[in-house]
Task: inverse folding
């Protein structure tokens, strides 16, 4: 088909006309979506610095969302949050903190709605047979009453939760003195900000010795050891291979974790499983430190295909660098560099979170306090 | 002597008694005199008399006390000597008593006598291992060595440097290199006039071994070889000519290497091969010449299996194993030890090499062996240790602390080349007083994690080590 110069010119002018009509609206939408998109982009590119940072960013993002979007009642608000939450989780599926934060906000919304309606909180939570049979509100009608104060109360509750999160490291560290006595030898692996604060707090009053496992191939242990030694805590760095050899002298193993799974198991740094096993063999208690927002609803088998999204394989050049691997001999070698490890709950002795110490068998109960069962599927 | 002792006091007593009697007679005579004079005299004499018999009795008592004390001391000494003669059983070596200054002084004197240079201890020591040497690789140990005829043989010096720099690693390689160097030493050896070959050669060997010990602590395989050497040297008949003796000695030592390393390797490969079946995924840790040989032999018989090589810092010896296996055409994977739990679900068998087997059934291997066997046992994966019989030793150890080799801590820190990166730099390490770095070389695995040990004498449980040692000691 041949287009004459005039015809072409006509079409482009018409196109420009249509574009300009919708341009303004689109600009407004764009401005709003730009901020959301930017955040999603940041998530995809992993522009965050650890789980605290990420949790903080997500919940602030959700707070902005609540304040800036228009919604009529609680159900619509939850729909908005859910939609955004799905996008965020899809952007970074290996970070469960995102899903945790979204579900926590949904639970906050539900709680505030129920409280404003004047009913007690337990009523909203329990699903008694009587309630199920004689409930006046069906699932569709629930949460649809329009309440003026809902927005402010939800914003307040979310801010409260953010404050609680900010104080979580401090709350965990305040329990340090209960668990560490004088002249103890404590083993830790990798670098966890919670563990660092915990040990530094205990070192203010007690003298003890810390053995840090370096945690190849990322060697986070070196950073932690340097930081602890700068605080005059007696620190020794050992390689991962020496863990079993040293375990007979260790009194406690204290580690941080990336997430806590629903059965009480851990998704921790690579190498944590063998440390946990060695501790179990020597009957050394394993204490895990983590704030409550790290507790997630997923089980080990839930995480699609277990190895698919559970573990992240980092670049293998950290294990076998390019020069060595590129040589004729070694070009067909499969090199693995996993970043996470699954630690089953039987190996964990105690969880210390900002609300206190718990056994791993109790963790599933805490889930029901933090997340509503209807929110398990976003 | 005792009779003389008995005689002396009695004679002394008699003499004292006589003198006392004389004085009493003098007193009586003087007392019969004038009162005043006698008083004075009496007083004087009484004074004298009061002191004199006392002094005599005192002297007697003193002498008696002295003699009894001497007698007691002599009996004590004899008891102690008898005790020390009895208790010359297992003695703790000076290498395990670095925190005892007296023992170290003695050891230093011994090294000086042998003209062997001594290494300086490192600055920052890990207190848990203060009973072991903790050196830092600073200046070469051979800097001040002379090449005089009374010094150490150049082949030994070369060997020592190769050990210290990590050019020769692995217990079999170290043992074979040692035998080689000693054969050279024996070949170049000339008995000085009026001295016996057997005795003088041993005195030549002692400084050589001390020097090698200073370069790098002796391995179990080397210890075994040295024992064999010493036995062979003492068994040389005194009427044999020097040349013939030297020849026989050299051939004996070469036979030791041939039988205990080369032939044993083949025997172990044959039996261990039967444990690898088609479709197996075999995990190995680090680099053991014996295990590589076993895997190559199994691959040559046509079995279809693949290997997972687990490696540990800072030596990263697994890369050597990886090269050998890849050249043979075996499919390999490579992970660091922190990823052992990740890869363990795929693994069907674990083959480990050993540095030495202890008498209580514990296996001494490169650090990390215990971790791999524990992880395997937890998943029900069988662990098979392959070890030649000459590496069995009489030592007993229950943990990895009492006897170990502490390497240079700077191996774990950042190398000079890399300026950025997570590893701590050397300057930072020196400045932080509270920071210590531990570089362990060996660790000890309890026997419950291991299914069996494959030796050239057959497949044994780990606890059969003392039986084998007994059998072998009857053979030699």
Result:
């Amino acid at each position: 088909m041949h287009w004459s110069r005039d015809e072409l010119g006509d079409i482009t002018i018409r196109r420009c006309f249509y574009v300009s009509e919708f341009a303004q609206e689109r600009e407004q939408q764009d401005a709003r979506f730009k901020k959301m998109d930017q955040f999603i982009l940041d998530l995809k590119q992993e522009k965050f610095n650890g789980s605290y940072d990420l949790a903080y960013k997500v919940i602030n993002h959700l707070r902005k969302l609540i304040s800036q979007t228009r919604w009529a009642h609680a159900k619509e608000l939850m729909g908005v949050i859910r939609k955004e939450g799905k996008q965020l989780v899809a952007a970074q599926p290996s970070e469960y903190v995102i899903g945790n934060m979204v579900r926590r906000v949904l639970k906050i919304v539900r709680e505030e709605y129920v409280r404003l309606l004047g009913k007690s909180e337990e009523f909203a939570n329990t699903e008694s047979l009587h309630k199920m049979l004689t409930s006046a509100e069906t699932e569709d009608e629930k949460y649809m009453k329009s309440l003026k104060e809902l927005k402010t109360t939800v914003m307040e509750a979310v801010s409260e939760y953010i404050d609680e999160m900010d104080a979580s490291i401090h709350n965990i560290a305040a329990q340090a003195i209960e668990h560490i006595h004088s002249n103890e030898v404590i083993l830790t692996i990798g670098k966890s900000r919670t563990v660092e604060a915990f040990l530094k707090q205990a070192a203010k009053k007690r003298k003890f010795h810390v053995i840090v496992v370096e945690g190849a191939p990322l060697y986070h242990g070196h950073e932690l050891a340097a930081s602890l030694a700068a605080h005059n805590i007696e620190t020794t760095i050992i390689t991962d291979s020496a863990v079993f050899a040293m375990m007979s002298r260790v009194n406690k193993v204290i580690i941080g974790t990336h997430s806590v799974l629903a059965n009480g198991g851990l998704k921790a740094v690579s190498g944590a499983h063998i440390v946990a096993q060695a501790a179990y063999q020597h009957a050394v208690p394993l204490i895990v430190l983590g704030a409550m927002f790290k507790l997630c609803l997923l089980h080990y088998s839930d995480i699609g295909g277990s190895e698919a999204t559970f573990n992240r394989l980092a670049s293998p050049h950290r294990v076998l660098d390019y020069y060595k691997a590129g040589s004729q001999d070694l070009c067909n070698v499969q090199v693995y560099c996993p970043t996470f490890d699954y630690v089953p709950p039987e190996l964990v002795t105690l969880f210390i979170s900002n609300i206190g110490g718990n056994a791993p068998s109790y963790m599933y109960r805490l889930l029901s306090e933090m997340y509503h069962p209807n929110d398990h599927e976003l | 002597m005792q009779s003389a002792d008995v005689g002396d006091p009695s004679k002394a007593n008699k003499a004292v008694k006589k003198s006392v009697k004389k004085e009493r007679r003098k007193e009586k005579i003087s007392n019969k005199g004038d009162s005043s004079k006698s008083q004075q005299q009496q007083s004087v004499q009484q004074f004298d008399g009061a002191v004199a018999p006392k002094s005599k009795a005192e002297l007697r008592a003193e002498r008696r006390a002295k003699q009894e004390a001497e007698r007691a001391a002599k009996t004590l000494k004899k008891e102690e000597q008898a005790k020390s003669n009895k208790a010359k059983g297992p003695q703790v070596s000076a290498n395990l008593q670095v925190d005892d200054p007296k023992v170290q002084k003695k050891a230093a004197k011994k090294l000086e006598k042998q003209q062997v240079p001594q290494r300086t201890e490192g600055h920052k020591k890990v207190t848990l291992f203060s009973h072991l040497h903790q050196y830092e690789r600073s200046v070469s140990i051979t800097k001040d060595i002379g090449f005089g005829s009374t010094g150490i043989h150049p082949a030994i010096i070369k060997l020592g440097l190769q050990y210290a720099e990590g050019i020769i690693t692995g217990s079999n390689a170290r043992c074979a290199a040692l035998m080689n160097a000693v054969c050279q030493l024996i070949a170049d050896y000339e008995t000085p006039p009026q001295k016996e070959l057997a005795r003088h050669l041993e005195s030549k060997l002692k400084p050589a071994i001390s020097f090698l010990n200073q370069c790098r602590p002796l391995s179990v395989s080397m210890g075994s070889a040295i024992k064999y050497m010493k036995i062979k040297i003492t068994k040389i008949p005194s009427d044999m000519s020097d040349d013939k003796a030297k020849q026989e000695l050299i051939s004996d030592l070469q036979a030791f290497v041939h039988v205990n390393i080369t032939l044993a390797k083949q025997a172990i490969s044959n039996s261990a091969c039967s444990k690898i079946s088609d479709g197996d995924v075999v995990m190995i840790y680090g680099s053991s010449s014996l295990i590589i040989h076993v895997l190559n032999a199994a691959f040559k018989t046509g079995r279809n299996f693949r290997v997972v090589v687990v490696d540990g810092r800072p030596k990263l010896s697994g890369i050597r194993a990886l090269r050998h296996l890849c050249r043979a055409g075996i499919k390999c994977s490579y992970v660091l030890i922190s990823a052992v739990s990740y890869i363990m679900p795929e693994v069907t068998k674990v083959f480990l090499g050993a540095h030495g087997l202890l008498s209580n059934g514990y296996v001494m291997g490169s650090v990390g062996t215990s971790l791999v066997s524990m992880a395997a046992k937890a998943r029900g994966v069988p662990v098979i240790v392959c070890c030649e019989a000459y590496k069995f030793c009489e030592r007993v150890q229950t943990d990895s602390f009492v006897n170990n080799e502490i390497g240079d801590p700077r191996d774990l820190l950042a190398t000079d080349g890399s300026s950025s990166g997570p590893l701590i730099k050397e300057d930072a390490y020196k400045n932080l007083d509270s920071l210590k770095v531990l570089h362990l070389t060996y660790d000890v695995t309890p026997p419950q994690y291991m299914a069996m040990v494959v030796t050239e004498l057959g497949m044994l449980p780990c606890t059969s080590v003392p039986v084998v040692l007994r059998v072998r000691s009857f053979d030699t």
